[in-house]
Design goal:
This protein is of the alpha/beta class and 341 residues long. Helix content is 40%, strand content 12%. Bound molecules: 3'-phosphate-adenosine-5'-phosphate sulfate. It is a single-pass type II membrane protein.
């Protein structure tokens, strides 16, 4: 199997070629550790393999037996109990800033879901590494468990649907969508937090401020044209294989949205109202118990940021811009998201 890191990548180091695998992986894995102390994401960021956590063994040897076997055999037994790495059967493919981290962290509470903490970016950036490289990133699963990952940029990657379909035509796809105007502001807020010197939201939004012409080549605007991106996916996947989760309802009624997702994945509805509480300080729903822990858990500081104030006229211009695309999207999905009230 191809090595995860090539010697040349390692030599480049974090200050080397920014496109080197090592630099990018380090960056991605660090980013994915955002929900600090959170289940597999935190384990992954600490470099611990997912199987380090106790899994339900296929055969549970008696405590006595485990003391008698040699360390080598014990290793083999535990490998058997941990299951095997499989390609994902379900993917959260988008959208950026839609609430994808919240959905994945909530889903992994389910005993029949195992997910990668980091964003693998296989179908957009690392496709050349091959499927075996991709599978090696996955946590081990037992029979009946679903392997998942989330990479929000897949939704706007032209090649992603064909590539995912080539892996398996049966892959289930989940897209968390959010009001494209709020999404654009959220996206901008994230960039601003990393590069405080970027131009204002207003100046990036318009090609020409006087005529009000929107710059559709700006990614923050482009990503929100959901109907256009969806069109590309529908060339490869039937609508029944794609589930659209409302980013707004994921906040106002997480258990309701999680119910729909569990049904879509063919899972028992185990994640319910009982798993959530609303954290007043955070202003978001949080988990009463995180996966693999008994403590309450909210998402990290980078989730649920305060957005800058955008002039109402700019917001209105954007609303007008998105309206026809939103209508098309409601029509295509047969779902009404209520962004245009
Ligand atoms: N429970 C909970 N806690 C915190 N944040 C929540 C939650 N549910 C949804 N959200 C919203 O998720 C937004 C970030 O979306 P993503 O995780 O998809 O972002 S990313 O693309 O992975 O960067 C994030 O966007 P911002 O509010 O702009 O920070 C949140 O609004």
């Amino acid at each position: 199997s191809p090595p995860l890191l090539r010697a040349s990548d390692a030599a480049a180091g974090p200050s080397g070629d920014p496109r080197s695998l090592r630099t990018r992986l380090t960056y991605e894995w660090t980013r994915a550790s955002e929900p600090a102390g959170f289940g597999a994401a935190a384990r992954a960021s600490r470099g611990l393999a997912d199987e380090a956590r106790p899994e339900r063994p296929l055969v549970s040897p008696s405590p006595d037996a485990s003391r008698k076997v040699s360390p080598r055999l014990a290793g083999k037994l535990s490998a058997l109990g941990d299951g095997s790495r499989k390609l994902p059967q379900a993917l959260i493919v988008g959208v950026k800033k839609g609430g994808t981290r919240a959905l994945l962290e909530f889903l992994r509470v389910h005993p029949d879901i195992r997910a990668v903490g980091a964003e693998p970016h296989f179908f957009d950036r690392h496709y050349d590494n091959g499927l075996q490289w991709y599978r090696d990133l996955m946590p081990k699963t037992l029979e009946g468990q679903i392997t998942m990952e989330k990479t929000p940029s897949y939704f706007v990657t032209r090649e992603a649907p064909a590539r995912i379909s080539a892996m398996s035509r049966d892959t289930k796809l989940i897209v968390v969508v959010r009001d494209p105007v709020t999404r654009a502001i959220s996206d901008y807020t994230q960039t601003l937090s990393k590069k405080p010197d970027i131009p204002s939201f207003e100046s990036l939004t318009f090609k020409n401020r006087t005529t009000g012409l929107i710059d559709t080549s700006w990614s923050a605007v482009q990503i929100g044209i959901y109907a256009k991106h969806l069109d590309n996916w529908l060339q490869y996947f039937p609508m029944e294989q794609i589930l659209f989760v409302s980013g707004e309802r994921l906040i106002s009624d997480p258990a309701g949205e999680l119910g729909r997702v569990q049904d879509f994945l063919g899972l028992k509805r185990i994640i319910t109202d009982k798993h959530f509480y609303f954290n007043q300080t955070k202003g978001f729903p949080c988990l009463k118990k995180a996966e693999g822990s008994s403590k309450p858990h909210c998402l990290g500081k980078t989730k649920g940021r305060t957005h800058p104030n955008i002039h109402p006229e700019v917001v209105q211009r954007l609303r007008d811009f998105y309206r026809p695309f939103n209508m098309k999207f409601y029509q295509m999905t047969g779902q009404f998201f209520g962004w245009d009230d």
